[in-house]
Each structure stands twice: as structure tokens, then as C-alpha cells.
């Protein structure tokens, strides 16, 4: 098959980790007889520096006309320390999500048998953890009306959801649960928030269409606790934008390294794949960043965007083998030999 893939390397370690994912994807394409055309485009601080805009129209055009988007990371410290900056790289990310209609952010958390001792949590707590968060990505407090009043002394961010937004996300959640262990947890704060009551009522009404799925409703504060106590009791969790942002960072430590966790953002049309870690400015250009999360994001791309599970599995097998044989970057080396970003990428590509 032939694919056009938009390549948004972004900022910080983005370009380095993306380079490894390209190498590994090209190795997969060669092995299985596919042809990939990579279509690089500017985003984030890199795009602000070049054209004054974090998600330029040209970049959107490239994304919207490709078969999938592979994304590195965006963010630059020069903007973090300047709250008055008129344009920020993160605005590009939000604009991209909205314009591409990426309403469902799929963030899996699983453990690697060879890395159980790397997690800060006790091994017996995390063994067998295999859960997926489905975070709503284009609504809620991120996109509601925001502003200041009273001469700037009062600030507000509105949280707004429509029933249709909840339904389309929940539908993906039910479908995912059906394809997995048939358990769905709706995470909300329905004891306090009106938007959460709309979420709960909407999901409850959909239960009858999926009689095999066991649905639970839990408050977000309780989930924050249970996630580190009994992560292996969860299967699929659906939640709104901000709760999902926070809980998925919490969940990422279960696996032992944020440098391992991939993600996908789906809409009705195009899908985007990216590591859940950020631009990690301190590591930029040092050849130390872990490329595995981005490489595993490419695996998700083959599986979910192109419906090619064998190709995805080939990548997962190479990553598991590298972990088992200690071909890892310094975040996972623990006193053993640490390989460079590029060397791990080369090894993975050679082992496809
Ligand atoms: C994420 C990030 C973004 C978010 C930021 C960079 C805007 O934290 O993808 O989780 O909050 O969604
Ligand atoms: Mn986040």
C-alpha cells in the first residue's frame, strides 16, 4: 500500500525522536512492501520562529490531505517563562486538534514485563495493567469562553459540553471496550459539575446499546487515587478534556517511563499519532531522549490508521526485544550501558 504521512517534528527533542520513528516505519514499509511518502511541515515554536504562527495554514493543508499525521512534541521554555507572549506554541496544538477534528485522544497505559521494577509503584500493584484512557480533546474548559473582567482582577474559563460531543466520545469508548475486556469507566465529577451530570446522563442512556459492557461511574478524585492503588482493575476509561489531561500524566508513571507511552488522536476523518511526553528542552540535541514512545506511536499508526496489525506488532516486538536486551536510553539504563537516541533507533530499525 501507499501512504502519505504528514510529519510534524515540532520542538525540543521532537525532531530527534521523530527521526527514529521514520527510520523504523521505513524499515516496516520495506519489510511488508509498502511505500511511505513523508510530508514534513512546521509546527510549534519552530513555526512561530519561521512564520509567526504555531500551526500555519500550509501545515494544516499538509495534515488534512495526508493519510495520517505523525507528531513529535511542541513547547519551548522561552514561552513558558513569558506569560505575556502574544503567540504560544501550545495554541498551535489546540488549533490543530480543533481544525483536524481530533475529538478522541487514545492514551494507553500498559506495563512491560522487563520493566516492572522501574515503576515507582509496587510490582504487585501494577502487574497486568492494561488500560486505555479516551480523553475528550476538542471541548470542555480548554475551548470554552475565557477572559478577564474587573480590570483584570477576575479571570474565568468556562467548561462547556454538548450532548453530541459526549455521545461521539462515549461511542468510541463503548466500541473500544467491546474490542477489549468489556469494561468502561466514566470518570466525572457529577456530584458538583453540571457538565459532568450531562456526561453521566448521556453515557447511562447509551448503556442499553452495549449490554455486554460493564459500565461504572466514578468521581475523578477517587479515580486519581484508585489509579495508583489498583491500576489493573481498569480497562477503558472515558473522560472530559482537563480530567483526561491530568489523569493520563498520572497513569504514565505506571509503566516506569514517560518515554515509553504512545498516543493517538482520532476524529471522524484523519488521525494523529504522538508520544505523550513533551518537548523535554533540557535534552534537546543531546542524543539522550528515549525514542520508544514515538516509535510505538508509529506502531499505533499502522494499527489504527492503516488497519495493519502485523506491521504494528513488528514494531512492538522490536521494542520489547530492545527492552529485554538493554538497548535503552539513559532513562531506563539504571547504571547499565545507556545507548543514544539514534543508536536505539538504528537498532530497532535493524530488528524489524
Ligand atoms: C497534552 C499536553 C497539552 C494539553 C498542552 C501542551 C496544551 O499537556 O497533550 O496532554 O494540555 O492537552
Ligand atoms: Mn498533558
UniProtKB/TrEMBL annotation:
Subcellular location: Cytoplasm
Cellular component GO terms, alphabetical: cytosol
Amino-acid positions noted as binding substrate in the UniProt annotation, renumbered to this chain: 97, 107, 135, 221
Major place of residence: cytoplasm
Binding locations of Mg(2+): 221, 245, 249
Cofactor binding annotation: Binds 1 Mg(2+) or Mn(2+) ion per subunit.
Site (Important for catalysis): 142, 189
Record keywords, A-Z: Amino-acid biosynthesis, Branched-chain amino acid biosynthesis, Cytoplasm, Leucine biosynthesis, Magnesium, Manganese, Metal-binding, NAD, Oxidoreductase
InterPro entries listed in its UniProt record: IsoCit/isopropylmalate_DH_CS, IsoPropMal-DH-like_dom, Isopropylmalate_DH
Source superkingdom: Bacteria
Cofactor: Mn(2+); Mg(2+)
Stretches of the chain forming a coiled coil according to its record: none
Keyword Oxidoreductase: yes
Pathway: Amino-acid biosynthesis; L-leucine biosynthesis; L-leucine from 3-methyl-2-oxobutanoate: step 3/4
EC number: 1.1.1.85
Reaction(s) the record says it catalyses: (2R,3S)-3-isopropylmalate + NAD(+) = 4-methyl-2-oxopentanoate + CO2 + NADH
The protein's enzyme class: oxidoreductase
Family according to the record: Belongs to the isocitrate and isopropylmalate dehydrogenases family. LeuB type 1 subfamily.
Quaternary data: Homodimer.
Protein name: 3-isopropylmalate dehydrogenase
Organism: Aestuariibaculum suncheonense
Taxonomic path: Bacteria, Pseudomonadati, Bacteroidota, Flavobacteriia, Flavobacteriales
Amino acid at each position: 500500500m501507499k501512504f502519505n504521512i504528514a510529519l510534524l517534528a515540532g520542538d525540543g527533542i521532537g525532531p530527534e525522536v521523530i527521526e527514529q520513528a521514520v527510520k523504523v516505519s521505513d524499515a516496516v514499509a520495506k519489510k511488508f512492501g509498502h511505500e511511505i511518502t513523508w510530508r514534513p511541515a512546521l509546527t510549534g515554536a519552530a513555526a512561530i520562529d519561521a512564520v509567526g504562527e504555531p500551526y500555519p495554514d500550509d501545515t494544516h493543508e499538509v495534515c488534512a490531505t495526508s493519510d495520517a499525521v505523525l507528531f513529535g512534541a511542541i513547547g519551548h521554555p522561552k514561552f513558558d517563562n513569558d506569560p505575556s507572549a502574544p503567540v504560544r506554541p501550545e495554541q498551535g496544538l489546540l488549533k490543530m486538534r480543533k481544525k483536524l477534528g481530533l475529538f478522541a485522544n487514545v492514551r494507553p497505559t500498559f506495563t512491560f514485563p522487563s520493566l516492572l521494577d522501574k515503576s515507582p509503584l509496587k510490582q504487585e500493584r501494577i502487574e497486568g495493567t492494561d488500560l486505555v484512557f479516551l480523553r475528550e480533546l476538542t471541548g470542555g474548559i480548554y475551548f470554552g469562553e475565557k477572559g478577564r473582567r474587573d480590570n483584570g482582577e477576575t479571570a474565568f474559563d468556562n467548561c462547556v459540553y454538548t450532548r453530541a460531543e459526549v455521545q461521539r466520545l462515549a461511542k468510541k469508548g463503548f466500541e473500544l471496550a467491546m474490542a477489549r475486556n468489556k469494561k468502561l469507566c466514566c470518570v466525572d465529577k457529577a456530584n458538583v459539575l453540571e457538565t459532568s451530570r450531562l456526561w453521566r446522563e448521556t453515557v447511562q442512556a447509551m448503556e442499553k446499546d452495549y449490554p455486554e459492557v460493564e459500565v461504572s461511574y466514578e468521581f475523578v478524585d477517587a479515580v486519581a487515587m484508585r489509579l495508583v492503588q489498583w491500576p489493573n482493575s481498569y480497562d477503558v476509561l472515558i473522560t472530559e478534556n482537563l480530567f483526561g489531561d491530568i489523569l493520563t500524566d498520572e497513569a504514565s508513571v505506571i509503566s516506569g517511563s514517560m518515554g515509553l507511552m504512545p498516543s493517538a488522536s482520532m476524529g471522524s476523518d484523519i488521525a494523529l499519532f504522538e508520544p505523550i511526553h513533551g518537548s523535554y528542552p533540557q535534552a534537546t540535541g543531546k542524543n539522550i531522549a528515549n525514542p520508544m514512545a514515538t516509535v510505538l506511536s508509529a506502531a499505533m499508526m499502522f494499527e489504527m490508521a492503516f488497519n495493519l496489525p502485523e506491521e504494528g506488532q513488528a514494531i512492538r516486538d522490536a521494542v520489547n526485544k530492545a527492552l529485554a536486551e538493554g538497548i535503552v536510553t539513559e532513562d531506563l539504563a539504571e547504571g547499565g550501558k545507556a545507548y543514544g537516541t539514534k543508536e536505539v533507533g538504528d537498532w530497532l530499525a535493524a530488528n524489524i
